[in-house]
Amino acid sequence: MSVNAHSLSQPKQNSGFFSWLWEWLSTVDHKKIAILYLFGGGLFFLIGGIEAMLIRIQLAVPENTFLVGHNYNEVITMHGTTMIFLAAMPFIFALMNAVIPLQIGARDVAFPFVNALGFWLFFMGGIILNLSWFLGGAPAGGWTAYAPLSSEFLGNGMDFYVLGLQVAGAGTLMGAINFLVTIVNMRAPGMTFMRLPLFTWTVFITAVLILFAFPALTVGLFLIFFDRLFDANFFNEANGGNSIIWEHIFWIFGHPEVYILILPAFGVISEVIATFSKKRLFGYSSMVFATILIGFLAFMVWVHHMFTVGLGPSANTIFAIATMAIAVPTGIKIFNWIFTLWGGQITFNTANLYAVGFIPTFVMGGVTGVMLAVPTADFQYHDSYFVVAHFHYVIVGGLIFGLFSGFYYWWPKMFGRHLNETLGKINFWLFFIGFHLTFFFQHFLGLMGMPRRYFTYLKGEGFDAFNMVSTIGAFLMFFAVIVMLINIAYSAVKGEKAKGDAWEQGRTLEWSIASPPPEYNFAQTPLVKGIDAFWKEKMDGKDKMTAAEPVGDIHMPSSSIVPFLMSISLTIASLGFIFSAHDGVRKPALFVAGAGVVLFFLCMLARSIKDDPGFHIHKEEVIETEKGVR
Amino acid sequence: MKKWRLSLRLFPLFAIALLLSGCGKEGLSTLIPMGTVAKEQADLMLFSLLIMVLVMVVVIVLFTYAIIKFRKKRGQEDFIPKQVEGNAKLELLWTIIPIILLIILAVPTISKTFAHSDTHVAKGDDVIKVKVTGHQYWWEFEYPDQKIKTAQDLVIPTGKKVVVELTSKDVIHAFWVPALAGKIDANPGQTTSLWLDADKEGTYKGRCAELCGSSHALMYFNVKAVSPDEFKQWSKDMKDGPSAPTTASAKKGEQIFKNNCMSCHAVGEKGGQTAPNLSNFADRENIAGFKEHNKKNLKAWIKNPGKIKPGAEMPSFEDELSDDQINALADYLFSLSVKK
Amino acid sequence: MSSVKDNVTALPLHPEKSTLEGKNKFLGFWFFLGGETVLFGTLFATFVALRHQTSGGPAAEDIFGMPLTFLSTIILLTSSLTSVFAIMAMRDNSLGRMQLWFWITVILGLAFLGLEITEFTEYMHEDLGYTTSAFSSAFYTLVGFHGCHVLFGVVWISTLMIQSFKKGITTVTAPKYYVASLYWHFIDVVWVFIFTVVYLLGILGG
Amino acid sequence: MATKQSETTMYIQKQQRKREMQHYLVSFGLMIIFTLLAFGTVMIDGIPKHFTSFFIVTLAIVQVLFQLYYFMHLKDKDHGFPTLFIFSGALVAFITVLTFVSIVWIS
Ligand code: HEA
Ligand code: HEA
Ligand code: CUA
Ligand SMILES: [Cu+2]
């Protein structure tokens, strides 16, 4: 794929499958990690999507017996958990890894080793979670895992939930710290904060939210873990525990989580719309301000998920007002996008179709969010299909549209080949229409009294027609995703080769280098002179960035298998803990768990003792590589 | 408050739109409210919907105009649009207008939220208090003032304020009667409350709205609103208990019941408290909260409750009792009426 | 960036932040501490919510003793100072002095752990087991989390010190020493709240 | 020339270190005093509980600020981001604690 710069400085490994595998298992290159995240997340997205299809098949007709009771609960739990933690989050990390270092003019991320570790932890966390299907049943407490159902009443599946998320969450946290430091410390000369591309800004704030939200989840999961495995009493009312504690902890994490998801999508939309309108982003500074404000407010509103818990009208209204306030900065963004389009020269390719489709769809989900923020009205909406409709509008119609837009937009940069536009447009329209068919009518189902997480509804409750429509819509989405898979395969074989400035109107730094970028990204660190640095240079009649340094040797980190080994050891530890819940094998299982933990720390020690000197790509090699580019 | 009442006049428009798409079934839908709380909630829902439709219209009009007017036209490929940085006035405009809209929404939000949470009412004739306990997967209703215990069917008088106090014996459940009022959670070890009333006599569907296990979806109950007089009569009858069985089969059933079922179920005062009280079983609307109320379903239930409600706490009696015995049990249970 | 050997003689004023790698480590570690703040905040919150839920078991005022807590506190505070001295020595490029102060820090840390373990075993004998009540679970979890941090710090600093014999103080190792000392201070920060909120307020019965 | 410059810097550095040392010792002394005060107030009977609680929590916060600003050098330049992030974390933690003392127990 990328030009291989190893040849001189690193001993060449035997070619063949194993060296290929080794390369991917041990890579610390952010561009390769991006691809790993993309395919890892993609795998789980397909699994989560299949689970969604199972849900829709069960609900297509009343009193269906396709998936009943506990099995249905397993499927919705795994659908929600998989989609949020194992599909959406890694997709976001895929784009972060692929784009952020390039957008800020950096050769790498701050901690390449940690970056790889983050990926492998996420991936193994996902594996742990999904192993539950084969080892005694999946978690069935909903993705919110309310105690005491999750802590006392459900079986082994919940242990997979707890440990899978714990491992994946640790990976996410590391990734966030890595990108925070990268953005603060590794910007090219002249790339001030107020010149950062908006995607980088949104990722920065997302990483901040991760940093402060995930530790709460970590604690919450530990509490459930201790309740389940060591008979602690956090949620055990008989010994003085309190199940509402879990709800608070979960949502103190959970609400910021939904903005963690949507902010990068906002960033993608900002980039794509500006690029394909051939205009700079309207109101850049207010966009930045709005992003920060959303990030701040994200921590002040979580109780809107708990209006019906009975916290009393004072708490409810305070949090209601705070929730409504988020509509204001979000609105600023919406209108700024519309006015970026305004007066532009808009190209409608697939990337931009998704971006443009995002706007009305997300607003639709956003305004139902504001409706939900009215506490006494939420007493009616809560845990009904109205909520399901709301969050799929913001998540699928917002986040997934944004991510797909980003994939179509940056695919050429990541892989050096374009995706096919015709297939892309079929994909978009199928997905767009299917999406609205699936979820629009769910608003009415909710208002008509259909609660969520119901594995069935009765004949004569009047829910039949809308549910059927919804299922049909889901099938359209299913076909849309198949088309997308075909497109990816097609592109890999026959896709049009991409130029460095793949869309010919790229504005930011990533378009100033080859597609895919060489291992070292920038032969010379660019000098940034303003917002939309590359566009600026092009307007000045140049086709390359002004360099901030002469060509020289480039220092690179060496690859390492240790991150992979570390996540394997945590997987072993997790499985040990999970099986320690079975009476017969408690002792040996705990022993395995301990061994896993020890192994993990040994890996850490090894890493600490052996400094990574890295290696250099020599000047001549760089010049040679760059020649082939244009 | 007056202001938003005024704008309610515009609602026929939206009401029509909603009607076209179907409001759902009477007695089940939040859009056909039958009690004070549900009505005010529906008003508030529609009022907020109005604001949201306004926002949507503005966004969609601007958006559609922009993407049609400014799409790339043939022959202008080299055109480079003006690189506008922003516009302070416009940006201020779309900061302030949403704030105003939200303030308009916040006012009724606050007042109604407080009003609907106000369950601290003086004891009196006009207030009925019910203690509700959620169990996996059934509802227990206790009237502390009337000293009655029942299950699955909540009987209330029309026109009176009913204060519901909730708790749970196991996991978190939520009590929801869409046509009468919004929901509130039943938390183990803690008490929450809500109030509701019903304008009209009739049966309203209630359901559990918090994931509580395998049969969360089947944790239905009924709210039967009757006239105040009827309610008084009913509560007196309930205290007297069901009339004794008369037929031979039912008497036989009573015996079987005593031997097999009393450890969990109570009839009248006597019996276990871990399962629904069956004193007025024959007067119920449904079996197990949602199945049609007939002997066939009852027998199926006794034979294998888990088949009807996955994960139900009641054991299967398929192998314990013969068909004859189950027939007798059914006769007995169908004789359990407090109606005179 | 530059090769390791150049720095043997002259060490920059802030060796922990003189290279990009060092700066990254420094900043990344502070961010990590920001996250840890939330982690402990959540644990504290849980403890505070459950502090009266003794469920028939012993309550805080029944078992906590002042002298032990006071001793632990002084030990940990002092260790914070010694790790500051270690960093000063590091900046003076004085390997021996740095090692000395860090080893003292480690020993104080071990002493603290020893006290904590005796304390816990004592409570166990007074029927405050981990599963006794919501209060006991929350107490052991919060204080135990902190204890694990101390343990980790002790191991971490020890391995660094063992390595330091071979590697000395360079722009590569300095950030590691510095970051480890930050971690140690943070442990102390958390302890200040633990002794105040858990022990003193517990004894007060507030 | 080069030596002269490094000599002056050396001198400045030395002075700085001396000052720093003073800071450390003073902060440490204060921290010990705060600790003593906290334990003392709890030991003395007859002080209203509310006051004691408020007082010792305040002492803890002040002591931690010393720890952060002097021992962990937040007062030095180049500590903008660390300061911002630590206090953001503290804010989230504070809101969490506030919630858990106020609205976790329903009636
Ligand atoms: C990407 C994810 C995402 C996003 C961005 C949002 C955004 C918002 N959400 Fe949503 N939400 C979820 C994901 C998300 N949500 C999920 C997953 C759940 C369910 C979890 C579960 O229970 O499983 C949920 C549930 C949920 C609830 C709880 C419902 C319940 O369970 O009873 C509430 C209540 O207040 C709410 C509110 C909001 C609000 C006010 C916004 C706002 O941020 C929206 C702001 C945007 C706009 C308002 C549109 C643009 C603005 C304008 C055009 C300006 C003018 C507008 C006005 C004046 C109104 N959400
Ligand atoms: C990122 C988040 C995300 C995404 C993308 C989705 C996507 C979808 N969701 Fe999801 N959903 C949630 C997050 C998400 N959901 C959450 C958090 C819940 C709450 C869970 C809970 O209650 O705890 C939920 C709950 C939920 C429910 C409610 C269940 C209930 O309450 O009973 C429903 C019902 O319709 C539903 C449907 C769908 C559908 C049809 C899609 C579609 O958009 C999916 C489209 C994708 C596909 C159709 C994939 C196609 C797959 C292939 C093409 C495979 C090909 C295979 C090979 C080649 C191997 N979801
Ligand atoms: Cu009870 Cu759901
Ligand atoms: Cu939310």
TrEMBL record, chain A:
GO biological process: electron transport coupled proton transport; oxidative phosphorylation; respiratory electron transport chain
SUPFAM superfamilies: Cytochrome c oxidase subunit I-like
Chief location bin: membrane
Enzyme Commission numbers on file: 7.1.1.9
Membrane topology annotation: Multi-pass membrane protein
Domain Cytochrome oxidase subunit I profile: 16-529
Transmembrane segments: 34-55, 75-96, 117-140, 160-186, 198-226, 249-269, 281-303, 315-339, 351-374, 386-411, 423-445, 465-490, 561-582, 588-609
InterPro entries: Cyt_c_oxase-like_su1_dom, Cyt_c_oxase-like_su1_sf, Cyt_C_Oxase_1, Cyt_c_Oxase_su1_BS, Cyt_c_oxidase_su1_bac
PROSITE patterns, per the entry: COX1 (PS50855), COX1_CUB (PS00077)
Keyword hit for Iron-sulfur: no
Alphabetized GO MF terms: cytochrome-c oxidase activity; heme binding; metal ion binding
Top class in the EC scheme: translocase
Origin superkingdom: Bacteria
Job of this protein: Cytochrome c oxidase is the component of the respiratory chain that catalyzes the reduction of oxygen to water. Subunits 1-3 form the functional core of the enzyme complex. CO I is the catalytic subunit of the enzyme. Electrons originating in cytochrome c are transferred via the copper A center of subunit 2 and heme A of subunit 1 to the bimetallic center formed by heme A3 and copper B.
Protein name (database record): Cytochrome c oxidase subunit 1
Organism of origin: Scopulibacillus darangshiensis
Lineage summary: Bacteria, Bacillati, Bacillota, Bacilli, Bacillales
TrEMBL record, chain B:
The Cytochrome oxidase subunit II copper A binding domain, residue ranges: 125-237
Localization terms from the record: Cell membrane; Membrane
PROSITE patterns: COX2, COX2_CUA, COX2_TM, CYTC, PROKAR_LIPOPROTEIN
Boundaries of every Cytochrome c domain copy: 248-337
TM spans (from-to): 44-68, 92-110
Cofactor comment text: Binds a copper A center.
Membrane association type: Multi-pass membrane protein
Classification via InterPro entries: CcO_II (IPR045187), CcO_II-like_C (IPR002429), Copper_CuA (IPR001505), Cupredoxin (IPR008972), CuRO_CcO_Caa3_II (IPR034236), Cyt_c-like_dom (IPR009056), Cyt_c-like_dom_sf (IPR036909), Cyt_c_oxidase_su2 (IPR014222)
Any single Pfam family the record assigns to this protein: COX2_TM
Sequence similarity: Belongs to the cytochrome c oxidase subunit 2 family.
Protein name: Cytochrome c oxidase subunit 2
Organism in which the protein naturally occurs: Scopulibacillus darangshiensis
From TrEMBL, chain C:
GO biological process: aerobic electron transport chain
Residue intervals passing through the bilayer: 27-50, 70-88, 100-118, 138-162, 182-204
InterPro entries, sorted: Cyt_c/ubiquinol_Oxase_su3, Cyt_c_oxidase-like_su3, Cyt_c_oxidase_su3-like_sf, Cyt_c_oxidase_su3_a-hlx, Ubiquinol_oxase_su3_dom
Pfam families per record: COX3
UniProt GO MF annotations: cytochrome-c oxidase activity
Family: Belongs to the cytochrome c oxidase subunit 3 family.
Keywords noted in UniProt: Cell membrane, Membrane, Transmembrane, Transmembrane helix
Heme-copper oxidase subunit III family profile domain boundaries: 1-203
Membrane topology per record: Multi-pass membrane protein
Species annotation: Scopulibacillus darangshiensis
Localization terms from the record: Cell membrane
Any one GO cellular component localisation term in the record: plasma membrane
Protein name as annotated: Cytochrome c oxidase subunit 3
UniProtKB/TrEMBL annotation, chain D:
Compartmental location: Cell membrane
GO cellular component, one term: plasma membrane
TM spans (from-to): 21-44, 50-72, 84-106
Keyword Cell membrane: yes
MF-aspect GO terms: cytochrome bo3 ubiquinol oxidase activity; proton transmembrane transporter activity
Keywords: Cell membrane, Membrane, Transmembrane, Transmembrane helix
Gene Ontology biological process terms, A to Z: aerobic electron transport chain; electron transport coupled proton transport
Membrane topology classification: Multi-pass membrane protein
Isomerase among keywords: no
InterPro entries named among the record's database cross-references: Cyt_c_oxidase_su4_bacillaceae (IPR014257), Cyt_c_oxidase_su4_prok (IPR005171), Cytochrome_c_oxidase_bac_sub4 (IPR050968)
Domain of life: Bacteria
The family this protein is said to belong to: Belongs to the cytochrome c oxidase bacterial subunit 4 family.
Record protein name field: Cytochrome c oxidase subunit 4
